[in-house]
User: Fold this.
Amino acid sequence: MAIQWFPGHMTSARKKAEETLEHIDVVIEVLDARVPAASHNPMIEEMRNFRQRPNLKILNKADLADPQVTQAWLNYFNKQPNTKAVALSCKKPGDAKKIPGLCRQLASHRGTPLKPLRMMIMGIPNVGKSTLMNALLNRRAAKVGDEPAVTKSQQRFDLNDSQNITDTPGMMWPKIEHESDGYLLAASHAIGRNAVIDEDVAEFLGNLLLKQYPALMNTRYKLDVMKLDVATMDGIDLLQAIAKRRTYKRNDGEWDMERTAMALLTDYRSGAIGRISLESPQSRAEMLALAAEQAAAAKKAKEDQATPEPDSV
Assistant:
């Protein structure tokens, strides 16, 4: 099932962001370090390129991500023109304080009382934009919550007499092109629960984790104690094992797979399993290549179907 989520308020949020960008010097794009490419909104790239604004990419929640994979992403993003990338945790005030200085490097002509440095925080829902804003201001100015799309309107604040910053609502884009991106975002809690089926998302996540981090899965859920072989398991097997291990049962005596799905998702989101990245530059390139191959094959099949066969002699 393809996952799509584009609440109505995001249309007006995009329009307002486009207007504000005219008066912004640097776009601070907050990404989820565990899924940097999937959590990148292509509309943000389009808007900032139209205004020719430099981009500081923040790989937030880096304390939850695989450090080796995060470094690979930093290398990847830092090769892009007019872009600087840094990995940090917005929950750590010391990390957040580095951001204005990094923005100053991207817009060295700004940063005085006469020409203040004007920054704008953008990103998809629930990646930590408001947490970053609060850390920069040393106070709870932006509303923070555990559910996506808490912030509904822009907020502008002065950091000092030579720097100001604008916080924007989390913005998705109208259509998620790749089905796997929808699941990556749902697993990382960037999409509202009303748009997903938790058990499907947990199954997808389980398949990935068993493939990429089998040792962590074995340690967290004691699969070897249950005499289970991680190498032969899939996402459904994992959910069933967790349910049995934790005795998650419904009143009718059946295994409670909904509760089990939320347990796996919560363990991943909180870092209880360990430091995990669900995609790397290499895996992303492989996914895109496969998607292009499948699209080309589908197009050819459609063209072949539309072409009438020649009359037989």
